[in-house]
Amino acid sequence: MLRRVKYERQTDGSIVMFPDGRPVHLNRRLINPLPSDDGNAHWCGRLYGDRDALTLCAILRDQVVEAPSQGPQPRYAMTIHPSAPGELPQG
Description:
By secondary structure, the chain is an all-beta fold. Helices cover 0% and strands 35% of the residues. The strands form two sheets. A four-stranded antiparallel beta sheet has the order 1-5-6-7, with no helix packed on it. The protein has a three-stranded antiparallel beta sheet with strand order 2-3-4, with no helix packed on it. A hairpin with a 3-residue loop joins β5 and β6 (52-59). The radius of gyration is 12 Å and the shape is globular. The protein starts with a strand and ends in a 9-residue tail after the last strand.
């Protein structure tokens, strides 16, 4: 399910989105490289329990995001990772 969300850019350049008000730290490979057409940020995924999230994709509203330069870029990717504050996904 694609839903509008608020997000923050952290001082280290990482992105945290807040579906249902819960912080989800994003893997940069899951961020659409083009900005949102409607001016809003969107998160697509599923929330599990109080801490885990499955992120399928993310779209930011205001800026083009450069994809990481290491290795081949997947066309579609999924990660399951803890989304508690201070815990960043590996990879």
